[in-house]
UniProtKB/TrEMBL annotation:
One of its GO terms (cellular component) is extracellular space. It comes from Ailuropoda melanoleuca (Giant panda). Keywords: Disulfide bond. This is BPTI/Kunitz inhibitor domain-containing protein. Residues 31-81 form the BPTI/Kunitz inhibitor domain. Pfam families: Kunitz_BPTI (PF00014). CDD domains: Kunitz_ELP-like.
Length: 82
């Protein structure tokens, strides 16, 4: 049987420094994930937080089954992970 996937893009603009305590504690773990292209063959230019260089860097996302360290802009990546 052919598998189908449904993805949701959730704006990160509501995640600010005054986030609830439990959310702010979860953010560093999210920002330490390695970039995940996923198995799909799309070509989406995204940014991830590189925990080694402490910079938001470019990667190519395939369009499905990535992880939370995936941002549409460097500004969003920096706001959440720095």
């Amino acid at each position: 049987a052919k598998q189908q996937y449904l993805s949701f893009l959730i704006p990160a603009a509501h995640l600010k420094h005054e986030a609830p305590r439990e959310l702010s504690q979860a953010l560093p773990a999210m920002c330490q994930l390695r970039p995940a292209k996923g198995p799909c063959r799309g070509l989406f230019y995204r940014y991830f937080s590189n925990s080694t260089s402490s910079e938001c860097e470019h990667f190519t996302y395939g369009g499905c089954q990535g992880n939370a360290n995936d941002f549409e802009t460097t500004e969003i990546c920096s706001r959440i992970c720095k």
